[in-house]
Amino acid sequence: MRVAAVQFAAGEDIPANLATCLRMIDAAAAEGAELIVLPEFCNHLSWYDAKVTAHRLACRLDDAFLGAIAERAVRHGAHVKVNVTLAREGGRTTGTSLLYGPDGALLGASDKLTLMGAEGDHLDPGQEAGPVIGTPLGRIGLYACMEGVTSDVCRDLTVRGAQLLLNSLNSFATDEASLHIPVRAAENKVWVVAANKVGPLLPEALLPAIGERLGVPPEWLHGAGESQIVAPDGTVVAKGPRTGEAVVVADIDVSAADAKERPDGTHILRARRPALYRPITSRPRERTAPPGADSATVAVVTGGDPLALTASAAGAGADLIVLPEDAFGGSDHAEVAAALAAALAGTEAHAVTSAGGSGLLVGARGLAGVQKKLHGTGDPGDGVRIFELPWGRLAIVVGDDAIHPETFRLAAIADADAVAVPFTPAEAWETALGLPERSAENRLNVVAAGPGTGLVLDLTSDFTLWTAWNGPFTGRISHPLVTVADGDLTFGKIHPAQAVNRHVSKNTDLVNGRAWHALTALSKDGLSA
């Protein structure tokens, strides 16, 4: 079928916004789209002087605005997803995604669970998970903007059977298009159709004052565009421009989302261990661990003589050295630990590799800790361990555990500052999208090493909106600084203390702000169709 993501600007004039929505639906239908996705907050800018104003200006399910959207769906015989603020009973106002069928019927509604920044001043978060909607086009899940900046909501929809995820955005962040949108397709092996705004996202007269308060140039407070359609392997098959209206179309085969196997035959959803994920669906607690060190020197070994390179890195002052999984081929923990300890002699460095399905943390005095692999056959572990090191709190993610977003979520909930990943990537998305996203969505420094590949993902202090930035604003908000291994031994820096700050914006905590009460499918056994 043909799908479309349309991008456009919406202001404070509600009738004008409706006219734009209808015009863009017509344009997408003229391209032959059977499914059309519109951006977030199509009815009004996400900016109000009071909650009562937001409620007054919000749509009602039976009003003329949504009636006109439904009529357009009928006119074109298309499915249409629109996102608006919606007045609910009891004075609540939600940001809600609505899917209309080709007969004009409302097929499903999903209230935004995770609000971003000032949205929380005027809107109310959703109270339950949105539905997976069965349609002739496939099983569809709805989400919006901030819900896609972390993995939980999209994972929950996928576990409940969604093949096609529709994302409506109201974002000026450029790392939406480069990272957060495509990774949701790849990590879940589903299709994603994402429509973002262009134009000012706040009242134009207020842009200079708001920009000054944010430390963000006013010209950056415009929708970042780049609406896109992403295949289940993470390939962006169609993408819109950074600025300006656009209709982004692609012909897709929804059944491609039914293939959940990795190249080695592992089914990415059946390999999950829901019982381990209960902390994700439990009430959050505040971090109790103190901040780690301001910085630490790390190294990744991706080839060559692992012992000689470990000794070289330790001698050069590395605090942490990560080697590929099974770097020494054997499964004898004691033998591997003894060899690494000898290479680390006379230093305070620690090295991480794996043997026999377990991650090994080794110092100059020998084996300092073991993290069993959590997913797969054999004798899997029963949780993520945290190791206290002089510079901070370290978690170890072993091998295929790295493809499961839940593993890193558990590390963040356990107050890790950094994660060492000895692994062997099997698909391109794992390093291009997966590990950068694990760092970004959880505020974790990540040091990963595999055969011929390695990454150092460093948390930057320029992260929280509503506070001044140290450097120039580049449009990237949560994306870590990336060092890609360029030889057998590569050095980098991480900043453990930055893991304490998880507030991407006012009232928006990436870890403790998760919609834990609405994510129950994540920790339940079994999968939906």
From TrEMBL:
Keywords: Hydrolase. PROSITE patterns: CN_HYDROLASE. The keyword Kinase does not apply. It comes from the Bacteria. Residues 1-254 form the CN hydrolase domain. The keyword Hydrolase applies. PANTHER family: CARBON-NITROGEN FAMILY, PUTATIVE (AFU_ORTHOLOGUE AFUA_5G02350)-RELATED (PTHR43674:SF16), NITRILASE C965.09-RELATED (PTHR43674). This is CN hydrolase domain-containing protein.
